[in-house]
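Morning. Coffee machine broken again, so started the prediction first thing and wrote up yesterday's gels while waiting. Chain of 250 residues, entered below exactly as on the submission form.
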Amino acid sequence: MGRDAYGNSITYKEIGAGGNWFPTIVGQSMMQLYGFTVEGTYKTDQEAKDNGEPDKRAGDYRFKNWDGQGLVSASEDRTVISHLEPKFTFGFNNRFTYKNIDFSFLIVGSYGNDIVNEFRKYNISLNGNWNPTYEAYNNRWTGAGEAQFDRPSEKSGSAIRDYANSLWVENGSYLRLRDVTIGYTFPKSLLQSWRLSNLRVYLSAQNYLTITKYSGYDPEVSWASASVNGWDRGNYPAFKSITAGLRVNF
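Came back before lunch.
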């Protein structure tokens, strides 16, 4: 038993790879992250007890208690917390010429998809073992009220490292300039004296511009397991490159 993204009770069946983080659920999209919803941090110890997490304290992460009764549990309070399939993907390419100059480009992207960034269970922990992000440091619990991230301590981040949760999920939409090329073809009148039929020089850049809100290295990430698309566990990102070339026809 568990709950869907709206808190409704559901029964799910686990099939094949994916483990209990990515179960296959009848009526749901395949291989979505299934875990706890983080609602910020507790303001007081009593608030943690009232929410069904008596072992937590002020400054610890608050997991959503969907039914508001009993203890927060893996059987009743986990939900589908990701949407890894884009609403749409797109690509656009074109080529322009003006006299002897040519210009071409290729743009690709996706919209409406999430990425499960598993690095978040380390880089938002304030326990002295890993380097936290500025986001985690600037929005940490400081001893009063509530905050986006938990209190600095030896156990900081332990709750979100052991259990799949909404803090791992990020907006995965992106727009990328995959390739842009500008070239110049020398005029035939000049080439005749050099005994050449064609001479073109060009400059090309690959993956040089990416617009995204994703905090990881590459929004086009996909884990080695083909069944889970959009799970970032450390894939090598697409590299930027600049290429200059010369094409000669005799």
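The radius of gyration is 25 Å. Going to sketch it on the whiteboard this afternoon.
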